[in-house]
Amino acid sequence: MVACFAGSHTNAYSDNNLDIQAGKNIYTRCTGCHTYDYHRTGPKHCGLVGRKAGSTPGFEYTQAMKDSDIIWTAATLEKFLYSPMDMIPGTSMGFSGITSPTELKQLTAFLLSLSDLNPLCQ
Amino acid sequence: MTNNTNKHQTLNRRGFLKSSGKLALSGTTIAIVGGLSIAHAGKTASSKELAQDVRILNTAIAAEHEAVAAYQLGAESGLLTTGTLKVAVKFQGHHKEHIDVLASTIRKLGGRATHAKSNYNFPVDQLKNEADVLRFAASLERGAVSAYAGAIPLFDNSDLAKAAASILADEAMHWAILRQALSLDPVPGAFFS
User: Can you give the CATH number for the domain in which B135 is found?
Assistant: First the structure.
């Protein structure tokens, strides 16, 4: 039973790693405006998860983003990336969205990985 | 396949310079936006739709300003050879023209165009030679193509979509030429995502 759980955990971890790698490739689509560790046309993404939308110091957000009361989690990120302007009308993120569930999952996995411990964020 | 690989590997900086001399799109872009209509598919656009279009265009202008600043950084770096510098300045000029057209469009829509930032965060410490500068420029151009590709489906107004597509095509050419100069396959696939 323990082995079974251990095996499941390993597979889940491997799957997540594959998603993160695939998500990193998908992230190149975001690089017109974003990068991991500093603000550009859009805000940086390091430390995004668990943060209130529109709250990163040093970036000038739209009022719509600041008023959204969204906390970034896997679920809210997937919903936003599916159709940013539907989720937050008034956002300046002029991106039509990602409709593939697989790509959404992978890109979200990559964004979730951008904690302050991630080398990309140091 | 082997022939193709060899072919792109033999396209060196001289080819880069020859190719870049053939680019000239700005007049066409201006003509496209010059006939801009604020009617969407036969109906007048709502203020909400116009505000959304202005926001999207302003995001594009912000990215174009960043590109102008990046090419300026490259031009002043002292890392570019004369021929490459000439091309970098030419590409920078295209981005300036994109800004002019986008700002003019925003004014026609009743909005105010965003200005350039007073400073930009660029990975200056990673730019040690000409290839580094070219890689940096290529990454920005690739990102710009993605940004326009992601924005075009949002426009109800086909005039705006046409103008954005024209700019996208120009930036895709920049990206391809920069990749060629770096001895990378200038056109890595049949589709872009």
Answer: 1.20.1260.10
Q: Is the ipTM of this complex over 0.90?
A: no
* pTM of the shown model: 0.83
Helices B130-151 + B158-181 axis angle, to 10: 160
Residues of A in contact with B191 (CB under 8 A): none
Per-domain residue ranges for chain A? Answer: 2-121
Q: What is the pLDDT of residue B44?
A: 67
Q: Is B98 part of a structural domain of the chain?
A: yes
The answer to whether residue B193 sits within a structural domain is: no
Classify burial at B185, counting beta carbons within 10 Å of its beta carbon; exposed 0-12, middle 13-18, buried 19 or more: middle
State pLDDT tens for residues A7-59: 444 565 567 899 999 999 999 999 999 999 999 999 999 999 999 999 999 99
Q: Are A96 and B154 inside 8 Å of each other by CB? A: yes
Q: What's at B147, amino acid-wise?
A: A
Task: Estimate the crossing angle of helix B158-181 against helix B47-75, to 10 degrees.
Answer: 20
Is the CATH code 1.10.760.10 the one for domain A2-121? yes
Domain-located, residue B76? yes
CB–CB of B151 and A38 under 8 A? no
The residue of chain A with its CA nearest to that of B52 is A90
- Does residue B10 lie in a domain region? no
Q: Which residues of A touch B59 (CB under 8 A)?
A: 33, 41, 92-94
Chain A closest-CA separation from residue B132 CA (Å): 17
Q: Is A82 on the interface with B (CB under 8 A)?
A: no
Question: Does A30 contact chain B (CB < 8 Å)?
Answer: yes
Q: Residue A14 has what pLDDT?
A: 63
Domain count, chain B: 1
**Which position has the higher pLDDT, B40 or A103?**
A103
Asked if the model's pLDDT at residue B66 lies above 70, the reply is yes
Domain range enclosing B174: 47-181
